[in-house]
Write a structure and sequence with these properties.
The complex is a heterodimer of chains A (228) and B (402).
Chain A lengths: L1 E12 L2 E13 L4 E5 L6 H8 L7 E6 L2 E2 L5 H11 E4 L11 H12 L3 H14 L15 H13 L5 E5 L7 H16 L3 E5 L3 H5 L3 E6 L2 E5 L7
Parallel strand pairs in A: 3-8, 3-9, 6-7, 7-8
Antiparallel strand pairs in A: 1-2, 1-4, 4-5, 9-10
Chain B lengths: L2 H14 L1 H37 L5 E6 L22 H7 L5 E16 L2 E10 L3 H4 L4 E4 L13 E4 L1 H8 L8 E4 L2 E9 L4 E2 L2 E2 L4 E4 H8 L6 E6 L5 H15 L6 E5 H44 L1 H9 L4 H37 L9 H27 L3 H6 L2
Helix pairs in contact in B: 1-10, 2-8, 2-10, 2-11, 8-11, 10-11
Classes of the chains: A alpha/beta (228), B alpha+beta (402).
Chain lengths: 228, 402
């Protein structure tokens, strides 16, 4: 499903070149649940951004569902992102002036879906994340856990194949953090690839497959396969 | 994205930041209001002058003694050429042409008038019965000067309504004898108060038969002669007739100036149109300033909403969609601002019209259309840069600040 081949990502910081990802090889199959861990500066976020097609690798190939993403145009990448990938961010990134419902339907709006259809879909998802009574509340009126659940609903509304979570519990207390992880794992059980980037070994440990990154290289991969 | 959603999203974004929206609306509306208001006043001034001239009469030719049309101080003014005066007989001679409908010799002066103990200094016009029709004046009471030999100095007069009020007060004026200078005249009519012509307010006038006025002013000349042609087309023919008649009567000298009302009107029209355009240009600059303000505010918008735009890109928005969203926002702002400005401008010109009722204030339609068009165009044009910046935002960077 996801295949990274010899992926390099080099940033130019002033005079210096920073090798954020160094000849990365990674294969992720359908329905996998993996966590990416490592110290800060190890390239976790860069890897996540490349997996989410928010960033382009300096060299190497990225095959998503059989298509070489690196060869797509900007707009094609945007469409792929919309249809195949869902993001859950540490800081939620909800639009403050929009209600929970409007935030959730944003990807559908961008895809040009008629309002009636959108309404039905968002309704189902609000129920799935337990926020049906909060549909018309704005983010500021919601707790952190509720905000993250709205963000998850938004990430999954296009029924993506891959769900990328960047420190999804980083800004939450442990109770709501666990709730959020439960919801994400539930989604994974339905067949979505779930990739969680985290500092927290407890959260990371819940994943079926754990990858450790240090200095842009994979130092351990519990699946034992695809190791360089 | 559906256009309804684009609009809803943009309007939502505008409502989300009231202060910014208000500032933008203010900038845009001031620009548009300036254009509308300034052109309204300019156009008002132009119409005012045009109307003033129209109230002189229609198809009118004005004969002035002396040739002075564009000379100023030129060689001719040093050659000792003394123009012959215009006389009542000249005027009567001019009337003898089939294309001339009416003719009115005019004499003018300032004279002391009194009735019983009340005295006033008023402008006095000496003329003939046809002046009434030429100037389209109306009578309030009695009659105008009777037709007859213009060389007869009948002791009659017609007075303006203000003169009547101030001299006679509650007493009936008709039939009274009043003193005009060293003469006594019987009041035979009172002018209706409507009707103004440049410099002279009919309300304040006293009108005498032209021969009486000449005796009063101790002169045998005329100030000018008004000639009304039968039609607009006849004006050039009447003009040649006037010039040739005068030449014959003045020993071959063509020593009069004939002004056609059209020429004067056209000149003033041109001057004022140029003025209005200048004023509109000044106002246009304020629109340009509003446009640059729009650009700045939209740039601030984009940087303030970096995270939101980054998010939209992460959610799969195409460059074009971001561009359209930002431009729609600017378009809505400009449109609302422009309409607001139009309302302010129209209200302003209405108020000015109230304060100066004589001035027909009103922005011409082209100014309104241009102001609206330019406002929206500048709003959009100046937002292209911010919108492109937004569309090119790097989502990773945009999302990295919280």
């Amino acid at each position: 499903m996801i295949r990274l081949e010899h992926v390099h990502r080099i940033f130019q910081v002033g005079e210096q070149k920073v090798h954020a990802l160094n000849d990365l090889m990674l294969h992720i199959g359908r329905g996998e649940y993996l966590s990416i861990m490592g110290p800060s500066g190890s390239g976790k976020s860069t890897l996540l951004n490349i997996l989410g097609i928010l960033d382009r690798s300096t060299s190497g190939r990225y095959l998503l569902d059989g298509t070489d993403v690196t060869s797509l145009t900007d707009d094609q990448q945007a469409s792929t992102r919309r249809e195949k990938i869902g993001f859950v961010f540490q800081f939620f990134h909800l639009v403050p002036r929009l209600t929970a419902e409007q935030n959730i339907e944003l990807p559908l709006v961008l895809a040009g879906m008629p309002p009636a259809e959108r309404k039905a879909r968002t309704g189902r998802l609000l129920q799935a994340v337990g926020l049906e009574t909060r549909a018309h509340h704005r983010p500021e009126e919601l707790s952190g856990g509720q905000r993250q659940r709205v963000a998850i609903a938004r990430a999954t509304i296009m029924e993506p194949a891959v769900l990328l979570a960047d420190e999804p519990t980083g800004n939450l207390d442990s109770v709501s953090g666990n709730e959020v992880i439960d919801i994400l794992e539930h989604l994974n059980q339905k067949g979505v690839i779930l990739i969680v980037v985290t500092h927290d070994p407890e959260i990371g440990g819940r994943a079926h497959r754990q990858i450790h990154l240090v200095d842009g290289r994979i130092t351990s991969d519990t699946s034992g396969q695809e190791k360089p | 994205m559906r256009s309804g959603d684009v609009l809803r999203f943009s309007v939502g974004a505008l409502q989300g930041n009231r202060v910014r929206t208000m500032l933008m609306l203010l900038a845009m509306s001031i620009g548009v209001a300036a254009v509308v208001l300034l052109t309204a006043v300019g156009e008002g001034a132009r119409l005012f002058v045009v109307n003033e001239f129209a109230s002189l009469g229609t198809n009118l030719l004005i004969v002035l003694p002396g040739r002075s049309e564009t000379a100023g101080i030129g060689p001719s003014s040093f050659m000792g050429e003394t123009p012959r005066d215009l006389t009542i007989r000249d005027a009567m001679a001019l009337a003898r042409h089939f294309a001339v409908r009416r003719i009115a010799p005019i004499n003018i002066g300032e004279v002391h008038v009194s009735w019983r103990q009340r005295e006033r200094e008023v402008p006095v016009i000496g003329s003939t019965s046809e002046l009434l029709a030429i100037r389209h004046w109306k009578m309030a009471q009695g009659r105008f000067l009777p037709p007859g030999d213009p060389e007869l100095a009948a002791p009659l007069c017609v007075i303006g309504s203000k003169v009547r009020k101030e001299l006679f007060g509650p007493h009936p004026a008709l039939g009274e004898m009043m003193s005009i200078g060293d003469r006594r005249c019987r009041v035979i009519g009172v002018m209706s108060s409507e009707g103004r012509s440049i410099g002279l307010d009919v309300e304040e006038l006293v009108i005498l038969p032209v021969a009486s006025a000449q005796m009063l002013f101790n002169t045998n000349t005329l100030f000018r002669i008004l000639v009304e042609a039968k039609s607009r087309e006849a004006i050039p023919r009447v003009k040649t007739h006037i010039l040739s008649t005068i030449r014959k009567r003045h020993q071959g000298e063509e020593d009069v100036t004939v002004i056609t009302q059209d020429a004067v009107l056209a000149t003033f029209d041109r001057i004022f149109r140029a003025l209005t355009l200048t004023v509109a240009g000044v106002a246009g600059i304020s629109l340009g300033v509003a446009g640059i303000l729009t650009m700045n505010v939209m740039l601030i918008t984009v940087s303030q909403r970096t995270a939101e735009i980054g998010l939209l890109k992460a959610l799969g928005a195409h460059r074009r969609q971001i561009l359209v969203l930002i431009l729609t926002e600017a378009g809505v702002l400009s449109l609302v601002g422009a309409l607001l400005g139009l309302a302010i401008g129209e209200t302003g010109s209405w108020v000015i019209g109230r304060i100066y009722p004589a001035l027909p204030v009103g922005a011409p339609w082209w100014a309104v259309v241009a102001a609206l068009g330019v406002a929206i165009a500048t709003g959009l044009t100046f937002s292209v840069l911010p919108a492109r910046r937004a569309a090119c935002l790097d989502p990773v960077q945009a999302l990295s600040h919280r």
